[in-house]
Structures
1.
Amino acid sequence: MIDLRSDTVTQPSQPMLSAMMTAETGDDVYGDDPTMKALEAKGAAISGKEAAIFLPSGTQANLVALLCHCQRGEEYIVGQLAHNYKYEAGGAAVLGSIQPQPVLAAADGTLPLDVVEQFIKPDDFHFAITRLLSLENTHNGKVLPLSYLAQAYDFTRSHRLALHIDGARIFNASVSLNVPLTDITRYCDTLTICLSKGLGTPVGSLLCGSADYIQRARRWRKMTGGAMRQVGILAAAGLYALEHNVTRLREDHDNAAWLAEQLRGIGVNVMRQDTNMVFVRLPQAQVAPLKSWMREHDIVLSTGPVTRLVTHLNIDRPALEKLVRHWQTFLAQQQG
Ligand SMILES: *Cc1c(COP(=O)(O)O)cnc(C)c1O
């Protein structure tokens, strides 16, 4: 099966499974799991933060991050299409009584700071208290420029806000910019990293920040049901991924660029390609037929008027060649 819906669909490889099978475990709620301790130490080291904590999902990592940053009646400024505003079932509002203040992102995925500034509430009892600026990197595949991050960081210092990065795909950003992760994370207080997307583990995210912050995150994680027991088997997958699956993200980006070029070549309306994502515009009449046509050929797409194709470690060049071939036949049939 060739599945281009998302990089979340990646399967654990044999060597990753072997690492999981042989992992040393202990009860992590007692702080006894050596493999988890190693993963959290590694997460802190690679992000240049004092500490890190493992959570079962990126959604829970973002939720816990927001619960640590904001109290009841406080707010975070966030992109209108950001995952931790739009795609997390309103968790911060429901469970934290935290008010989101969404703003529209610019075309490059940044939140324009002059706009953000207008939404910071003055100290007045009519308003929620603005605490946090939350950015997403990458945002729909787009890498936030380092110069912007530097400005955003200074901006938050002068406005007494914290800066969180939802870095579900932050390694795609660091590989794309060809800089160490710390060149990006120096411009934030906290960040989340998904291990289960392009990095290819079955489960898990890391939340990284100061020692004090991560200490508080441990309580929120417990409260939200995310503390787990012999979780070294998952940590082993994470350690394996950080060791072996980071630099190879470049292949996914190269494959996405190749795919975009090939699709343009056969007349598909390719809107853009950024990192491991290709966005194409489909005529409405093709949306459903393309999906079922591909499905018949063991290719899974989530089609829409804007269709997103995501490359990942289970998609190689022959798989993409097959996709392009079937797309071309599909288009020929449509015309015929
Ligand atoms: C996938 C994703 C998450 C977390 O999703 P989970 O499915 O809960 O792991 C968070 N933020 C962004 C930007 C994502 O793409």
Note: The radius of gyration is 21 Å.
2.
Amino acid sequence: MVPILDLKQEYLELKSEIDAAIERVLSSGGFVGGPEVAALESELAAYLKVPHVVTCGSGTDALFIALRAMGIGPGDEVITSPFTFIATLEAILHAGARPVLVDIDPQHYNLNPALLKAALTPRTRAILPVHLYGQVAPMQEIRAFAQQHGLKVLEDAAQAIGARYCAAGCRHPVGQACDCPHPLAGTLGDAGAFSLYPTKNLGAYGDGGFIATQSESIAEESRLLAAHGSRVRYHHVRPAGYTSRLDALQAAILRVKLPYLETWNARRREIAQMYHQGLKNKVQTPCEMPYALHIYHQYTIRHPERDRLAAHLKDQGIGSSVHYPLPAHLQPAYRDLAPEGTLPAAETAAREVLSLPMHPFLQEAQVEAVIQAVLRYA
Ligand SMILES: *Cc1c(COP(=O)(O)O)cnc(C)c1O
């Protein structure tokens, strides 16, 4: 059996450190916010090399709080990708704005910058690129377009903590932590929203998220909104704030895990390399863009008979998953966003993509078993 993900193994590996962190919080008597959360925020800010990190209740919260903190609201349009987890769309709607979908580039599954222009209207206020599967969207083009048209950029970096936007051709040693000087995903726009959901590359043991930003005003506004619109307890300076906070227990657990993130991402890249070697020319393997340090939140292949391949893998005891079976505009709840047939790259991708088992604790023999099982079908 090779499950797509195995979170228990990671816990067992870190058990003594995690148990000590939990014990420390339980005996402190402080459970929401407090010194563990403050320490995690500074450690994340140091890791990402940004001046401000604001933690909150989830990645979805991070997205819509950041949008509101940027001043996006009713009457505004936000350009985003149809090929994403639905939270990206929900965040735009929660902020009161309208999502405008732009098709993906089928090479990397992220927004196709050549199509931005056609989506621009006088109401466009922001672009929300998603760094899908752990590979950064073409941010240079997206940023240039945003700058030219006076738009804000919020990155959905939920799947991309530790991914980088590099100079073309920057070489990354496989299996070693990256020490290149290039900026990290989520620090390339006005703000980045991250998820700390257990399955993400840096996951808590419950829900959590955060906003990273260079902007003091976005950070300050996000902090206000996440805490009932108040800076001083029982004094509310913004209407319609939220209760969106990180638990001290989660912060303490994340503080144990953060120092391992680079090593874990390096191991993911090493596993991706094994998959590439075993599967290239047999199925369509992920395309690493020359500017990207891909951190393989998912290792996603394409196959014209995707559902049959997935069923075959299941018979062989191999887990797999489809991210995502429907693009946003074909979801029953979002049919009004765009007619079928108008976002063909996303529609085709949704029919063909299949994510294979990927986590830093996969054994080489397991990777080999997955490769052999795919090859027996392909
Ligand atoms: C996980 C995820 C989110 C939402 O994060 P939560 O912490 O689950 O709210 C948003 N966008 C993308 C692309 C994600 O993968």
Note: The chain is about 40% helix and 15% strand.
3.
Amino acid sequence: MSTITNHLPTDELQALDAAHHMHPFTHGAELAGKGARVITRARGVTLTDSEGNDILDAMAGLWCVNVGYGRDELADAAARQMRELPYYNTFFQTTHVPAIALASKLAELAPGDLNHVFFAGSGSEANDTNIRLVRTYWAQKGRPDKKVIISRKNAYHGSSVGSASLGGMGGMHAQGGLPIPGIHHIDQPNWWAEGGDMTPEEFGLERARQLEQAIAELGEDRVAAFIAEPVQGAGGVIVPPDSYWPEIRRICDKHDILLIADEVICGFGRTGNWFGSQTVGWRPDIMTIAKGLSSGYQPIGGSIISDEIAEVIGDTEFNHGYTYSGHPVACAVALENLRILEEEGIVDRVRDRTGPYLKEKWEELTDHPLVGEAKIVGLMGSIALTPDKAARAPFAAGPGAAGLICREACFANNLVMRHVGDRMIISPPLVIEPAEIDTLIHRARAALDQTHARLRDEGLMKAAS
Ligand SMILES: *Cc1c(COP(=O)(O)O)cnc(C)c1O
């Protein structure tokens, strides 16, 4: 068999990719027709592709490369751990130092009484764990009927059967018979798209009160938990109106249900605090973590659990676990990643310096003719593209057509910005420097200008009626 290296011509790599590699969330035949981009290297906030282009990665991979690319400390931590103990499990009454050290460090970083960690290999796995955890918790407390988990439409909680059911993505539920029973979805707090004539504050309250209505309809004695991302990420970086979270918190305090904060994106500095629930003023009972936990250098996720839940679960054998729960190499890398975040003061920098700097420039984009609202928390932001700002109108061409054109224009300008429908989103590495933020904004503006010109040329600047 011949060796596959970076040095094959791009078209050969693309042909092999198309022949043998199935991509996540991708229309296979369409991609095969044009060929995937081949990324070969990365440093800091910059990717290099097989054609030698340097591309500013304003998505930090998939929202995960918080400390940036090319950190030798993380490579060294992995190599050291592989030589010392490449693998051992934590089943059957055994443990190892990396799992102990990482769990202890997470207990120290997590707020309040969140002191116990169940490790998984990803955010999806961790949310599957959470479904079983909260149901087992209530069953142990003699309330086996408390099973239903309330979530939100357009939430993203992962791609396994359980976690995709928790999520509220219509396109995912349409394939493979989801959601599983016992998951209930309420509407999302997306004022721009769904707020109608209400003020943002009225709308925030209305959407939060759907939680209370759902609890009333389902019956408090049947509801186990509410799960939410502090800021919806994959749904389009939806930042709720200010009235939303305090009302959600009031409702959760009043009714006897557990609160799961899905911190897979918001955790580890993304919103300017260690956890997004701190930014939005929540006290969760369980937090889902992954992505920024290892800055994506190793696949690892987990659930951080309160003293009370851990105690109740600890009174039985929890028949659950993954071969790679607490994988030593992943734990060692995550621990080193947390050391870097802490010692380099990266979380504070997002809150005090780069976050405010990006916010100012990002919000200025609303002066562009295509841009309706601009939203940003810490270093995660979105802009809504629209043919008619005053009416907050969607495009007549249907959702996603303009967004896709804009994403392609970004790439042509050496910028990775993702589109969710017609929202453009960013989530750059947390180490991004102010000068790199200037570059990001400069390229985003160029891409918006080109998108605008193309939409006009093709007669697509029409609002849906
Ligand atoms: C990415 C993501 C997940 C799923 O994590 P994976 O590691 O891809 O399984 C879960 N929740 C949120 C909020 C995410 O963004």
Note: DSSP finds 17 helices and 15 strands in the chain.
